[in-house]
């Protein structure tokens, strides 16, 4: 596994944060955090994107978007 999807325990993935690219409507006054994560009770790993205000989004993934390995 790569630094973005490394496993900390048998049941948890908590990889390195990665930088998001700016798009139309990107709010420069916000701080975005994004990483790949899977907790013990989650069926799938996912990409989390959270802003400094605490609001965020999550999307299930099967493979690491950085290295392409299947996430278990």
Question: Could you name the key traits of this structure?
Answer:
mainly beta; 5 strands; 0% helix; globular
Describe it for me?
The protein is built from no helices and five strands. The chain is globular, with a radius of gyration of 13 Å. The mean pLDDT is 81. The protein is mainly β. It has one domain. 10% of the residues are buried. Helices cover 0% and strands 36% of the residues. Strands 1-2-3-4-5 form a five-stranded antiparallel beta sheet, with no helix packed on it. The protein has strands at residues 7-9, 12-14, 32-38, 45-51, 56-61.
Task: Give a short overview.
With 72 residues, the chain is mainly beta. The protein is built from no helices and five strands.
**Domains, number:** 1
Q: Structural class per helix/strand content?
A: mainly beta
Spell out the helices and strands N to C. EEEEE
Strand order, main sheet: write it out.
Answer: 1-2-3-4-5
Low-confidence sequence ranges: none
SS element count, helices:
0
Helix content: under 10%
Distance between the termini: 11 Å
Q: Main beta sheet: strand number and arrangement?
A: 5 strands, antiparallel
Query: So what's the overall shape?
Result: globular
What's the gyration radius in Å? 13 Å
Overall average pLDDT:
81
> How many E strands?
5
Strand content: 35-45%
